[in-house]
Amino acid sequence: MDISAIAPTSSNSLIMNSSPSIDPPYEVIYREEKSGLNVIYVPSNYNNQTKWFYKSGFEMDEMWAINVIAAAQKYIDQGISHNMHVPKSIKGSELLRLDLGAWKKQLKTIYYTYTEEYERNEDCVMCEA
């Protein structure tokens, strides 16, 4: 029997050449510093033809991410800790809608709610790492 699990942390996922969890990434290309080493993470098939398929959590509809986590949660024995990505300008009513949506979809937990004023330079070809 071949058993696999979702890489729970960015460090583990780098070793396994995957992405952490099934949450959208905080950034598609990012740099991580561990034990004095700088590791730049770029998805293995990221290039000019595929870059349009990659989005950070801030570029996605958060309710879509909640629906994906809810669908996966049905087949997981333990809970999935979901991280929400929302802009700093989010209204309280929208945050409430997302939290209630996660509750109604029976997500086990919202672990972190990341906020950022996210702007990507339109001239970015590959958003050089």
Plain-language structure description:
The protein is an alpha+beta fold and 129 residues long. The protein has 3 helices and 4 strands, in the order H-E-E-H-E-H-E. It has helices spanning 10-16, 62-73, 92-104, and strands at residues 30-34, 37-41, 81-86, 109-115. The strands form 2 sheets. It has a two-stranded antiparallel ribbon with strand order 1-2. A two-stranded parallel ribbon has the order 3-4. The longest helix has 13 residues, at 92-104. 12% of the residues are buried. The model has no long low-confidence stretch (mean pLDDT 79).
Any chance you could write out the topology, listing elements then pairs?
Blueprint: H1 10-16, E1 30-34, E2 37-41, H2 62-73, E3 81-86, H3 92-104, E4 109-115
Parallel strand pairs: 3-4
Antiparallel strand pairs: 1-2
Question: Summarize this, please?
Answer:
The chain has helices at 10-16, 62-73, 92-104, and strands at residues 30-34, 37-41, 81-86, 109-115.
What summary fits the major beta sheet?
Answer: 2 strands, antiparallel
Q: Note the run of SSEs as H and E.
A: HEEHEHE
What's the alpha carbon Rg, rounded to whole Å? 16 Å
Q: What percentage of residues falls in helices of 4 or more residues?
A: 10-25%
- Ends distance: 39 Å
- How many E-type strands? 4
Sum up the structure in keywords.
129 residues, alpha+beta, two-stranded antiparallel sheet, globular
